[in-house]
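Weekend entry, working from home. Most of the wet-lab plans are on hold until the incubator is repaired, so I used the time to fold the two sequences that have been sitting in the queue since the last round of cloning. Logging both here for the record. First:
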Amino acid sequence: MTTTQLSQANLNELPVQGPEYDRSQVTAGVVHFGVGGFHRAHQALYIDKLMRQGEAMDFGIIGMGVMPSDIRMRDALKSQDFLYTLTEKTPDGQQSSRVIGSIIDYLYTPEDPANAVAVLADASIKIVSLTVTEGGYNFDHVRGEFNFDNPQVAADIADLKAGKTDELRTFYGLITAGLIARRAANTVPFTVMSCDNIQGNGEMAHRMFLSFAGAIDAELATWIDENVPFPNSMVDRITPETTDADREDLDYVDAWPVVCEDFTQWVLEDKFAAGRPAFDKVGVELVQDVVPYELMKLRLLNASHQGLCYFGYLAGHRYVHDVMADPRFAEFLLAYMEQEGTPSLRPLPGVDLDAYRHQLIARFGNAAIKDTVARLCAESSDRIPKWLLPVVRENLESGNAPVTLSAAIVASWARYAEGVDEQGRDININDRMADRLKENASGNHENILAFLRDREVFGNLVDNEEFTTAYTDALRSLHEVGSEATLDKLLAR
């Protein structure tokens, strides 16, 4: 077993291609919150590609982490000079690896919040980007308003009102403190670039930051509104969690490599205050209106992930490609996308939606990346309200499409949240609301609408007869005959 450690000094000894540029000449231009597998398989890769072309050398990435779980990533990357291996796997089993060098530092901000603010205040930082997950934006799912009851947020607001930056806890506090410093120094502000799976992610970030800043100082909020761009973006690449097997597949030691599919897409609103990398040279689609692309991805790909994961997990499948090996799942997902997801989209001239839908089915079936069903089931209370329920509400309001299959997906989540699969095995529910979800689902047999009555998650859907009828039929069927037979009944309709 090899003991060669991935590092800048050892790059020439490794059997993979390393950065083809002088990393000592790379300077910081981007701060990124949420350095996980997806960011390293996506945004960091695009910048690395540009650097290999001699571009964007002043857009090196400094990672920032605010959660205790971020320490592990910081330590892993720091131990290997912030390098890591990216392996892309095709559905036919081919793979290619390279070492990515665009990340040049990583700060765990609780160790020195004031230093993190100083980095953000530096004029060299032109972009602050975010992949903090759908639940990281701290807003109410139903009302879409900022949650001021979060104690860490409240503490950061109080500190910033008092001019203190040495104990800031959230990315809202840190980023806003950086903007306050740049405003005071009359420095061009950075652009805040959300890359999370939220409809209108830039607009959402804009609204949330204005709410946060407004609680500190109304004039600060006005300045941010007038000077700080928040471009929308659509990002896409299936990136499963790294496993020990992924590490062992390498002929050298990499503490945290990344494995992903060979497909990648990035559609980005071209709205930046202090410049941007030449993203268009490496395949990024720069557009004026991202929303139609966002809706396509969220309501077809992401919602379909929810459509397969609960049914699939209940049936006993643990890998996504095993779910998709059953033709009924592909048929169900295509039916959802064609009959309910697609009618809720905005016009997309030049996009072949039928080809896109079938491409998604092929991507889901990629056995090489070993994506887990459990990963797709995680954090459902943040995902379902953002990806699937908007489809339901729009179709109910317009009357242009049914909601039968969408309701069945919600019912499959309700059945999954009961915490036991169809083989009698316990389900580990990974969700910030796990206890509450299980308690709600525990009443499913006595009151078929028990799970749906949580208005913080579902709003007033429990009051809509068309939706509740379809939901009730699906949940009763799941209890009586199981997931696969339920899918058969739905498809027979």
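Second, folded right after the first finished:
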Amino acid sequence: MIRTVVRDVPRSVAYLLSGVLVGAPLMAALLVMGTLGLALTPVLVGLPLLALVALSGVPVGALERLRLRLLGSGTPTAPHTTPAEPGLAAWARLRLTERATWRELAYTFLLGFLLWPLDVLVLVGALGVPGALMGAPLQLSVSGGDTKIAKLWLIDTYGQALLCTATGTVLLLALLWPLALYARARAALARLLLAPNEAEDRRRLAEVTRSRARLVAAFEAERRRIERDLHDGAQQRLVSLSMTLGLLRLDAPPELADRLASAHREADQVLVELRELIHGIHPQVLADYGLTDALADAADRSAVPVEVDVDLPRFPESVESAAYFAVREALANIGRHSGAERAWLGGRYEDGRLRVQVRDDGLGGADPSAGTGLTGLADRLAVLDGTLSVHSPAGGPTVLSLEIPCPTR
């Protein structure tokens, strides 16, 4: 408690005193500009002055946000947006349409006509009166006879003066904490009117997060639809075409047999490529058996031998899909860039979080920002409040870790 008072009181005094130094000239400026603006409005000369009054809250708000640092708190960010066009006219038009500008103007009038006089009263009551009482012996010695303390109490002996000093000391100590509380309340009012609306920002951020999650869910649904259409449509037709070509080869004359064989091979190759494409869009093993089997299947397809240690329950489709494609991208990068001879894949679900790690014995030095494809996967995990990190010092090993908070099915 004492340490807090010793720390907060000087800051509070500096904050309130600087408020007086800002508020007193601000009141005079508002009165002059407002009076002249209203008086000269009939001849249109006053309109620019009234516009200046309306925009006066912008610089005052910026100054007041800086003054909040005197209390040891950070400077709030400005609530204004950047104009889309350069120039003073575009800036003024934007500012006059922002609610933040009018909140700043309201605070400017409060500061100019109400808050700084209150600051004076608080400083005088909390410091001036106790200080006058504590200085009673000095005042009595200067006067040489009797003196009035704080223009209220007449004393003429040093005993009375010492009693005033003791009273002033007790009163000062008693009022220091209320002084700090008042300064905090003043700062809270300033932050409420001048700082961005944090509750509104949180609401917008939550809505953006939900919107991104809905987009990912819609993307996954569309991915599955395309996979299903390719599997049930184009793939079945290619299978039928391949079978037809095979049957035609049996009865074809020799001059057509080679051409039919070539067409048959091409159809089979297209079928293989289509199956790989379908698997890349949304592997059936992931939908049917879950992430554990899908990761094992991805490890089997890796160009580098992968040791798998994965034991996971079923998760929501968006979580399984994001984790699967992140691991598949990591294994593809190992095969293309790492020079590794072996890789390790581990996955666990603990404390409500899915944790997957991919490690290799390659050369290291991987840079996720150099177009490896992991940046997009990190963004996709961020929609699920997940994180993707890559640790790859020169010489290796490279370790990719992903973590997603999620429930099980």
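Plan for Monday: verify the second prediction. The mean pLDDT is 80.
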